[in-house]
Amino acid sequence: MESMKTIVEQIDFRQMNMDIITRAGEILRAGGLVAFPTETVYGLGADALNEQAAKKIYAAKGRPSDNPLIVHIADMEAIGRIAEAVPEKARAAAEAFWPGPLTMIFQKTGEVPMGTTGGLNTVAVRMPDHNAARALIRAGGGYIAAPSANTSGRPSPTTAQHVEEDLNGKIDMILDGGAVEIGVESTILDMTAKPPMILRPGAVTREMLEELIGEVAVDKTVIAAGSHAAPKAPGMKYRHYAPKAELTVVEGSISRTVDEIIRLTGEKIAEGFKVGIIATEETVGRYSMGEVKCIGARGEEETIASRLYGILREFDGIGIDYIYSEAFGREGIGSAVMNRLLKAAGQRIIDAGGK
After folding, report:
1. What pTM did the predictor assign?
2. Which of 44, 55, 67, 317 has the fewest CB atoms lying closer than 10 Å?
3. Mind listing the pLDDT tens digit for each residue in 38-61?
């Protein structure tokens, strides 16, 4: 790809500079690419109804073209143009969780090009809970396809600096709105399945959805990398969120987990490797070797979620060879944290026992 000059503009969602938003919207309408903050991670936006623009996203990210993009909207009325039908349960979920970190999958209309949906007849739709993101969507024509604004497979970007590291010279503009709030991507709920099915866990949890719309299934099949089946949602098929180092997750009772990580770290350091450890407030003092980073307290899973990708990128920045991470609970947003960790680890997990 030939290099272009990437413009970086600071924006404040509390007091927005509409001149910058208008300029960014013009870039999108002209078929260009703009990275922008949402409450989950930074997105890489293009006009979702322009197939050539959607193709530019895949090229900039190095993303496989069968990996569908999420279409971001700013108003509920917009959904009628891109979704064939919106079931009653989807309307209830939208009323409760939009704007917010929930993506829903519908049968698509002919307006949405196959280049946006990864060749599928379904479309994934989300309304972000971020004033600047919604202002940009409106300025850009109302339908913005936006995967995470990173090189495909790398940890997702939670700051504009992460976007610059990966995409500087490949996209037209980055809107810098500071660090994001949630830090893991939206929950994806397939409304074409009965019962509705979670294809990717996020901050809107299964428990929250079931309370509102009744039974919700969770997809058990993370498609193997060699599979020829088309993934129905972003992040299902390929290794994702991965640091450059080899990451392993260690699960078990806290004391056995710590002992196992200390043992593994000692082995790797003795072999001359640089090792990183993802610890919690409860355990950080027990590690005396390696580069130890505290991701937060075990009871504060929102903090753990918001710090995960940043820590993986920090390890990349200091040339770590191996990373060992403690495992986390699988309830609530913990399921989203574990989903991303295991994908980043290529499903490498060690059972230390004692649970």
Report:
1. 0.91
2. 317
3. 999 999 999 999 999 999 999 999
